[in-house]
Protein 1
Amino acid sequence: MRVLVAALLLLAASSHGSSPLSLERVIAYGSSYYQLNQWSAFSGFQLRWDKKTGFVELSKPGMRVAFALNSRKVRINNQNILLSLPLLVRGDNVMISSVDAQTTLDPLIFPRTGGPDVKIVCLDPGHGGRDTGKIDKFNLEKKYTLLLAKEIAIRLKLAGIKVVMTRTTDQTLELSDRPEFARRKGADLFVSLHYNATSPGVRGVEVYCLSPAGVASSNDGGGRAPRGSNPGNMQNSRNILLASELHKSILQNTGLEDRGLKRSRFEVLREARIPAVLIEGGFMTDSMDAAKIYNPAFRKKMAQAIADGILSYKRITSSGSSSQALK
Ligand SMILES: [Zn+2]
């Protein structure tokens, strides 16, 4: 019987060999779900569900995926990632939304390889000119995003990558000009750099990529939303992989707190037709983060982490080796 189920699951496999697009789907609350036990068997994971605590874990050598029921947060190895919909319990089954399986888990667990090489990277220092970005006393976000971009550019060039920057001076730029600039320059990736601000005590790094069609953004609470597709959604699988490699590298190399890999519909992400991410590299309003953001030595460390994340993405997507993805 088990063999038969496995055979049926294999038959159900989609043509690119990763996403179980034809696995049995269940509609609940207007969204489509897979049974997590079927999906995890298909994806080569052991499933453990502790019904008392609500803890759900998928594991296989080198990878651990931990969910909590009723939460959109999933932990993949040491990264916090925000799903669009929490897991759902139906009878004796845990269900995962098909949008999260297809646009978050699949692209990270089975990264698409053999893609075009990354030769040109567009760095986008947030804000500039009349647009100061966030303000902390006399410190302006626009100054620190540009300083960071220049440090990243040095490191990418040393690694043989051509860098184009949406601005190299304190210049006002429209949001729509930024992805358009990347397109004109023939860039392969778009990386927008920002710093955050809110009440004191909130700290940590956030890495964003574009929300999939049909769901709300992470900071709007996730869930279903009548939102259509944007040009950036053509790169859904690459967007999340690039965001994940950057997020992972920043966490490993800087010690910044992890506020998660999130989804948003920032204009620069909506309009980018190449894999694109937006990094919020800490909070200017938090004394611990601010001390790092304004510190040249820490900025170099952050720049190296971002350059390393880009290089890791380049290795995975262009080498044909998929085993690197979530170490
Ligand atoms: Zn900003």
Protein 2
Amino acid sequence: MYARGHGIILNEPTVIALNSRTQEVLAMGHEAWQMIGRTPGYIVAVRPLRGGAITDFEITQRMIRLLFQRAGVSRLYRARVLICVPSAITHVEQRAVLEAARRAGAAQTYLIEQPMAAAIGAGLPIHEPMGNMVVDVGGGTTEVAVISLGGVVSLEAVRVGSFDVDAAIQTYVRREYGIAIGERTAEEIKLAIGSAYAVDDGYKAEVRGRDLMTGLPKTILLVPEEVRGAIEEQIRAICDAVVACLARTPPELAQDLILNGVHLVGGGGMLRGLDRRISEETDLPVHLVDAPLECVVLGAGRCLENFDSLKEMFMARSQAR
Ligand SMILES: Nc1ncnc2c1ncn2[C@@H]1O[C@H](COP(=O)(O)OP(=O)(O)OP(=O)(O)O)[C@@H](O)[C@H]1O
Ligand SMILES: [Mg+2]
């Protein structure tokens, strides 16, 4: 969350912990993430925005309300809100986002496509007649966009992201070692030794899980190479999305990319060696931006700070009431 004049005011995972008996919200963000896999049966941790779309409208709305509360937004302030959404969002989903924000207290809501916000956040010359490519590897989605003259010229979006990498690691450990590990442990393995290209292979990760045969806790050692193999399918899908987007890009703009390169954003983009791997597959230079996790929100923030000059970048707005 970014507030005009204040910068980033809140930076937490989109997770919420619910009491499934009473539907009461127990925690959100970091606190809820700590609870995943560690709660009694009736407390469930949910990601209401899994895959980049609203999977649970009620909960999303409640989460937006909580976020507004934390930011001090109430109906009284008649807040103007800008929300970043995936480019591949459908009209029905756009309505759902706008409606969720309206009910949570926003006076006026605007939507901006995430790749556009990312490009603005990365400081790319989006208004020029020149090809700029942004690859955003998020948790649930990967979006690849070529932007020129302030618009998205070609787009490829796939519902594969960094959560799928975690899931692949979980599956691998279960299959190869007969050990069950949680979602959070899988993410820790990814952060510690995950890679998309053979770089820094000197480390090993000690992993604790539950032996599926004996039911007892057990420790194993994983090496980067086997993890790379385990997540190859997901990395492949991400690279294929980049290639598919390039194939759809008009030649003049594609040519610009040889000089300008590809800009990699999103938390998933920080996976070790992913830049090298995409570069190898596309024969283009790939730059990981300075703040991959914050790039989108910083771009949206810049739109708020320069509202009148950048508002033509927005894709939709709620009806004025
Ligand atoms: N250093 C890192 N290496 C690899 N992955 C990382 C790293 N840091 C964060 N991630 C992963 O990035 C993901 C979150 O990225 P991001 O915040 O860009 O996603 P999102 O914008 O919330 O998701 P989406 O764009 O799909 O809606 C998490 O799965 C996290 O594990
Ligand atoms: Mg994202």
